[in-house]
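Provenance and format

Records in this collection were gathered into a single text stream. Each protein contributes a sequence line and a token line. The two records reproduced below are adjacent in the stream.
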Amino acid sequence: MLSERINALFSLLQCNNTEIARFAGCSPGNISKLKTGNREPKPGSRSIAAFAEGVYGYAEDENLLPVLAELCHAPDITREALAPALTAWLFGPGEVSLPRLTATPRSKRARVRQRRSFGERLDRA
């Protein structure tokens, strides 16, 4: 089911509707409809193409393209290879299995460092 795969993808990439929508050029509400299953477009639709572009843009920005490529079994991390592989994975059969390769998105690493440095400052005080 498409919504299951989208939720697994969001979990793997540690992203939310707003982050993907920003790169997809649509509203977070459109992404939410895909995530909840309220909207089930066809694999070749413009909304799925925009969603794949949004996921690619987010993964590129957060240095997560290798994780995305492993998930989709894409031959490389180029947009031309990954976007169609992601679409095929989204509509593919079988159970969802997430890759072993994991990474923390760049923007989330900065927040972890900020929290750690605050904790360190608090310990010193």
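Adjacent record:
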Amino acid sequence: MAHELYTRTNQKIFFAGLALESLRKAEAGEAANAQALVHAEREAALFHLYGAVLGLCHEVAGYYKLAEANAPRVELLLNQAVLQSSPTPELAE
């Protein structure tokens, strides 16, 4: 089960939540490096959210056995050419 595609998506969502929680603490903090912490946590949250979207796209592409199922970037899965050649309701949304 650890190698199932959906586990990566769930992990990324969980890690994004942790980053957002740390971001809130950094924004409320008075540390000398608070600005850097806010910036770092914001980037961490975006990194994990992007990974979650990519993981979700991999889940859908894997389920429908699309040729692009292992694309390394979201942009390679969510473009007009892919959506028209292999229409899937989930990726279209």
